[in-house]
Amino acid sequence: MTKLVMPKVDRKLISNKNVVVENLKKIIKSENVLDHEDQIRPFETDALSAYKQKPLAVVFPENTKEVSEILKYCNEKRIKVIPRGAGTGLSGGALPLADGILLCLGKFNKIIDIDYKNRCVVAQPGVTNLSITQAVESKNFYYAPDPSSQIACSIGGNVAENSGGVHSLKYGTTSNNLLGAEVVFMDGTICRLGGKTYDSEGYDLLGLITGSEGLLCVITEVTVKILKKPQTVKAALIGFSTIEDGGNCVSDIIASGIIPAGMEMMDKALIHATDNFVKAGYPRDAESMLIVELDGTESEVNELIERVSEIAKKNKSSSIKISKNEKQRLKFWAGRKAAFPACGDMAPDYYCMDGTIPRGKLAQVLKEIGRLSKKYNLPVANAFHAGDGNLHPLIMYDANEKNSLEKTEKFGAEILKYCVKIGGVLTGEHGVGVEKRELMCEMFNNNDIQQQIKIKNALDSSMLLNPGKVYPILRKCAEEGRVHVHRGKTKFPDIPRF
C-alpha cells in the first residue's frame, strides 16, 4: 500500500490541462476553479495523510445545476471526478488523481429547511454533522449519528460513508436516519430519492447510495430525521482489571436485552492518553473501561443503571462511577471524543483502523490484537463502539523510521483479516477507500465483486466517478503474491488490470 497503485494516468489530458480549466471556468465562476500548484496542494490528501496526490484541478460548485454541468462536461470528455466533502475521511476515499477533477462541496453549506412537524431537516451536503443538532437543540431536538469528527465532518460525507458514532447502537447509523437525498449522476442527470416520509415507493435507491463512497453519484442535498431529546440521560463509567472482563461485560449487557444509547470501550493506553488530554476523571488503574449511556424516562434510566451495575460487578468491575449531572456526563464523553487527538502525545504518528466484529467475540479480538502488537513491536491503543462491534485500533508508529508505514499497514491488514475470519467485516464507518481496497478479496468472492461492479457500471458506465477506490486493483495483488493461481486460473478474471 505504501507504493499505491492507481488507475493509469491520461497524460494527454494532463497536457491539455489549460483547456480543461478554461472550460470549467465557463461553467462556474472562475474564482471557484483552482489549478495553481499552491492552490491545490491543501487538497492533495484527506485524513489518511499517508497518501498524497495533487489533482488536475479543484472546483467549488455553488448549486446543483453547476454540479450537473460539471459532471456532464467531464463525462463527455472522459475526465475522472473525485467528490470531496470536508476531507475528514480516514480511508483515502477522497484521494485525488493526477488526471482527475476534485469536486468539493464546501460551498453547499446551508440548512434549507427545519420541519419540526415531520421531525426532519433538509440540508446541503457541506453542512457539518454537529451543525444539524445545533440548529434544532433550542427546540429540544437533536440528530443522533455522532461520529468523533462531528464538529468537522460533513453530512454528505456521512451519507457517502454511512457514518455512525457512539449513539449508533440504539439509534442506528446514517442509513437509519436518512430520509431523502438529491443526487447527480455522472451523465449530469439530477434525481431525487426519498423525501420527508419514512417509506418510499419502488427500489431502495436511497439505501444503495448510502455508503457508496462517491462511486455512484454526487450528493447535493440530504433530508435527515431529528429526534426529541430524552427526558433523562445518565452515563456509567466502569473500570475493569482485564480487557477480557470488559469485553465480556459488553456481551452480557447486550445479551440481557438492554440497549444502551451508547457503549464505548477503551484500553489502558487510551484511558491514560485521553485522561491526560481532557482530565475526564477516568479510572487510570484500570486495564479497560466502558462508558455506558442510558436514556429514557427517569425511572427507566435509574432501573437500567442498576441492572448495568449488577452486570458489571458480575464481570469483576474494579470501579463504577455514575454521572450525577449533565456536566459530568459530557465530561465522561469528552475523553472518548478526543481519543484521536489525544494519541498525538503517544507517538509521532498513528494509523487508525476500522473493522466490525460479532459483539460476543470482542474479548477474543482484543487478545489477538495484543498478540499482533508484540509480533510487530508496535504499540496499540484501542477504542471501540463496543455495543455494535465496531473497533478502532490505533497503531502507533514513527513515519520517519524506514519501512515503518509498511510494517504498520501489514499489522493493520492482519487485524482486518482476523475480523473477517471470525465472522466480521472489513469496515464499520470509515469506508474502504484505498486503504482496504486490496483486502476486498478477503471478504468477497468473484461473484460478489462482479455484482457490485455491475451496479457501478449501470450508473457510471465510463467508470469516471472516484476510480481506484473500493474495488481491488489486481495487478497490485499479484505483485504482492495475494492472488492464488490454481491450474492456470486466476481469481477475479473479469476485473480490469490497470
Task: Report on the architecture of this protein.
By secondary structure, this protein is α+β, with helices and mostly antiparallel strands. Among the domains are: 11-104, Uridine Diphospho-n-acetylenolpyruvylglucosamine Reductase, domain 2, CATH 3.30.43; 111-228, Uridine Diphospho-n-acetylenolpyruvylglucosamine Reductase, domain 3, CATH 3.30.465.10; 232-340, Alpha-Beta Plaits. 35% of the residues lie in helices and 20% in strands. It contains 18 helices and 19 strands. It has helices spanning 11-15, 17-27, 37-40, 64-77, 129-136, 155-161, 168-171, 205-209, 243-255, 268-278, 298-314, 326-337, 339-342, 362-376, 404-421, 440-443, 446-459, 474-479; strands spanning 33-34, 57-59, 80-84, 100-104, 111-115, 120-123, 141-142, 178-184, 190-194, 218-225, 227-228, 232-240, 262-267, 288-296, 317-322, 349-352, 355-356, 380-385, 390-397. Strands 12, 13, 14, 15, 16, 17, 18 and 19 form an 8-stranded antiparallel beta sheet that branches. Helix 9 (243-255) runs antiparallel to helix 14 and helix 14 runs antiparallel to helix 15. It starts with 10 loop residues before the first helix and ends in a 19-residue tail after the last helix. Mean pLDDT is 91; it is low at 475-490 and 492-498.
